[in-house]
Amino acid sequence: MDKYFCRGCxxxxxxxxxMNTCPGCLAHKHTGWSIEQLLDxxxxxxxxxxxxxxxxxxxxxxxxxxxxxxxxxxxxxxWLQSSDVLPGFQQQQEELLSAFESSRTPAQWNLxxxxxxxxALHLRYA
Length: 126
Hints:
Elements: E1 4-6, H1 7-14, H2 23-30, H3 35-48, E2 51-53, H4 73-82, H5 87-102, H6 106-111, H7 114-120
Antiparallel strand pairs: 1-2
Helix pairs in contact: 1-3, 4-5, 4-7
């Protein structure tokens, strides 16, 4: 079963609260996430999509990465396809990577999960 945050979660975070009936909110809180961190990672996606999928129920916070001049989308795709992330996260990140390939803008970059961003920074040099 896929796990995701919804716009109801976002509304709670914006009010300075955690949705206590949401397994994702509770798991992230349990692993030490602050409301500011939840907003940093998931708000950009929830402003555009009704759901923001996460890679696993419990995860460590990773800060957003600045968009570099060069991005290795292939490495990010390989990571998504070979890792143990939840299927909804994989599908959403694949779609966001495709959108980023079409429009390499900071706005598209910021829709990518920071974990995906990190894997897109592993550039191969010839």
